[in-house]
Amino acid sequence: MKTDERHSTDERTSRALVQRSHLGPRDLTLTTDHPRPVPGPGEYLIRVGAAGVNFADVMQTRGTYGGGPRAPYVAGFEAAGEIVDVGPGVTEPLPPGTHVVGTGPGAFAQYATVSAAGALPVPDGWSDAEALGMVLNWATALAALKPLGGIEPGETVLVQAAAGGVGQAAVRLARHYGARVVATASPAKHDTVRALGADEVLDGRRPDLAAEITRLTGGVDLVLESVGRTTFATSLAVTKPFTGRVVVFGAASGDATLTTHDLVFAHPVQVKGLHIGTLATAVPALYRSLIAELGTLVADGVYPPGTPVVHPLADGPAVLESLEAGRTSGKHALDPWR
Ligand SMILES: NC(=O)c1ccc[n+]([C@@H]2O[C@H](COP(=O)([O-])OP(=O)(O)OC[C@H]3O[C@@H](n4cnc5c(N)ncnc54)[C@H](OP(=O)(O)O)[C@@H]3O)[C@@H](O)[C@H]2O)c1
Questions:
Q1: Which residues surround ligand 1 with Cβ inside 6 Å?
Q2: 286 domain residue, yes or no
């Protein structure tokens, strides 16, 4: 047995975090004898070096993620690690030993399967943990800003929850594409967002948020909306009529509603929905162009290696609880070997 496999009970099992109910992260429990998965068609089996924590993980623990797994299930769906086996039907597979970052069920474990079609090689010189976020946070931010958001230099972009995993990527990218960035975050996270280059940083919970954004900008061209219930009305109110776009890709505070009456009489703006997994499946050429652009951004140093806070696997429930409560900043990850 290798020293770094000290927690694995035998060759066929894997330490894993299993969600046993839909009562939230508190019912996520560590198991040491989960069967090691076998890669199915179109999948790689990877030895997970680091697993990414995402807000969707929280939603899955509560059963509110559309099409999410039903308990019991091994939690997590973003992982980076070394290919150890290749399932049938993978065209032009990367060789075993290659480190990739990708998505697949059961990522909070020592071994997990990821979709080969969506897996990207970890950039040269980057660790597994540093590559987390590439296919979720960064691809989502890029899709929201460019093909959907149609960002142009000189435009004003509002990024809600800007200190988060997607939010930080969005601030960096929006600045790179020449936009003025207005960002919202909890006050304790403002320095982090300013350091990324945001021009204005506001408390997303201040009661006069819409009035203040309108005062500062005269109306924004593009909003990245992922908070939902508590911010959606503000996002609509500050968007320029007709030319302004609101890209909706999450609802961390709960769902918001929008009526035809709203769109016709109150907020005649362009509202667009985004789910990066659905985009990859429904419009693969567009997804490939996003991935190619991410490669250019990495090569140009616009997208630097990630700096996630890496926790031991057993701390997963506490990390998810912090994410759910809005207490985290930036990207968090789990090390299944610690
Ligand atoms: N559609 C897609 O394909 C896709 C892909 C990735 C992520 N997402 C979505 O994008 C959003 C960001 O994901 P992430 O993983 O990067 O999470 P995150 O932004 O790191 O965490 C969520 C943040 O939302 C803010 N927030 C505001 N009100 C909140 C509330 N009532 N409860 C909890 N948080 C609240 C908090 O920041 P403050 O304390 O600063 O307000 C919190 O830190 C999520 O909604 C997620 O579901 C969607």
A1: 54-56, 136-137, 140, 161, 163-167, 185-186, 189, 204, 226-227, 230, 249-253, 274-276, 323, 326, 328
A2: no
Residue 320 sits in a domain whose CATH number is 3.90.180.10
Task: Write the burial class of residue 216 (CB in 10 Å: 0-12 exposed, 13-18 middle, 19+ buried).
Answer: middle
Reference 293, options 84, 192, 190, 145; nearest CA is 145
Task: State which residues form the domain around 228.
Answer: 137-278
Residues 191 and 319 placed together within one structural domain of the fold: no
Divide the 338 residues of the chain into consecutive groups of 10 and give the mean pLDDT of each group.
43 93 96 96 98 98 95 98 98 97 98 96 98 98 98 98 98 98 98 98 97 98 98 98 98 97 98 97 96 97 98 98 97 98
